[in-house]
């Protein structure tokens, strides 16, 4: 999971937004700034489509270097290359759409989404209470890659309708999200199954700050 905020990327200008929720996957390339394990950085790099294509086609390049006499023939086999790329993208990395509906029980999926709402609202309540916000609507936006057979990649951000803007989170708020959002029974992998089954990869948890009671604010600050 990568907590996205202007404080965690080198290119915060890429996070400018005109509407909530702001989509990230397929729209911008984020350059992580700090605190990310190598595995997560590799996973974000792997999300770059062109690099995946180059990796798939690398054997053709090697073949042309080894069998130089056949290099021209190999280079003139675009249909084979395209077919290999399509197979890798749709069968090796992803679950075909016609098979997605049955990968998780619908009732279990509903329970998972309900839990996501509960956890997301609790996180937003603590963030709003900590910032002493009294108006506006906050959104916890959870967006995932649709690649099913490798490590899930999840972008999480807090977005405000005031502006609108993607909030610059403090270190404490980032830690809160990492600790409270995912965990048994709703892990990143389980959410990905739910998203795959419904072919929907962006989840938006909204909280009207005015709905937070004084008791909830005190409890959030204390906890």
Could you explain how this protein is built, in words?
The chain crosses the membrane at residues 50-67, 73-93. This protein is of the alpha+beta class. It has one domain (2-45, 99-222). It has helices spanning 38-46, 49-66, 71-75, 78-92, 106-131, 171-180, 188-198, 214-222, and strands at 2-3, 137-144, 154-160, 165-166, 202-208. Strands 1, 2, 3, 4 and 5 form a five-stranded mixed β-sheet that branches. Helix 5 packs antiparallel against helix 6, helix 5 (106-131) packs across helix 7 and helix 5 crosses helix 8 (214-222).
Summarize the helix and strand pattern as letters: EHHHHHEEEHHEH
Derived from helix and strand composition plus strand pairing, the structural class reads alpha+beta
Tell me the distance between the termini.
23 Å
Helix content: 40-55%
Q: For the report, how would you describe the main beta sheet?
A: 5 strands, mixed
Beta fraction: 5-15%
Q: What is the global morphology?
A: elongated
The tally of domains stands at 1
